Amino acid sequence: MHEAAASLYDEQDLVMEALGNDVRRAILRLLAEGELPAGRIAERFPISRPAVSKHLRLLSQAQLVSHEADGVRHIYRLNRAGFDRGRVWLDQFWPDALGRFKLLAENTYERGNG
Amino acid sequence: MHEAAASLYDEQDLVMEALGNDVRRAILRLLAEGELPAGRIAERFPISRPAVSKHLRLLSQAQLVSHEADGVRHIYRLNRAGFDRGRVWLDQFWPDALGRFKLLAENTYERGNG
DNA sequence: AAATTATGTAACTTGCAAGTTACATAAGGA
DNA sequence: TCCTTATGTAACTTGCAAGTTACATAATTT
Prior knowledge:
Two copies of one chain form a homodimer.
Chain A: H1 3-19, H2 22-32, E1 36-37, H3 38-43, H4 49-61, E2 65-70, E3 73-78, H5 80-91, H6 101-106
Antiparallel strand pairs in A: 1-3, 2-3
Helix pairs in contact in A: 1-4, 1-5
Chain A binds a DNA duplex through residues 21, 23, 37-39, 47-51, 53-57, 69, 71-74.
């Protein structure tokens, strides 16, 4: 019957679960600079390529990234859908936006170091 | 430069890490209905009380909950700070969303309502 | 003061997420 | 066609997060 409602929460859970890992968060930050093929992503981490591939699969299932084949390469990029779901999840606790921009304003600048 | 920035991201990581567990997310949903003492929270879960206590500690470190002693009881409630950090983390990926909040902040700045 | 209640913590165990290696597949290039 | 490149997956291992039990502490109650 109402599988739509149930699957919505499942999808939100997939997002929150995926975001709860530092390697996956680092992959997202890397992709924030621009789309990349799977191999290039893996190069940036001290773990094996299959391990990164598995993280990419979880990120993809959570719709935090999307990917498309380009010849033999698979290009990954950020997918807004997952981030929106994460935001919806957070908003169930604090529906009003007020009080957020102070923190936001204080942290929208420099970050580039790594 | 300011180590405030570094520790901020550590704190964001604490939040995202804490939110990446379904028991902890369920605790937050429970506390969204109202504050509760530790024991009452533990009653609602099929795991042991010390296990819940440990989850509460992590949630507290992430500032997703706060707690205060009330006699022998420790009352837990949601803490806005952690949720704000979670949102800041999400918003770093979509600058246009940041712009939206900045605009909102500018328009609401001296009105002081909230 | 002794018993009870509510909680946190220490020490240990364990389940599973995250890692590894080995292999399969598919697209180009020589 | 065979070789190389790029990737995903299967099967197995392992590190650590999340669970357990036992104990310490502190505030009430009798």
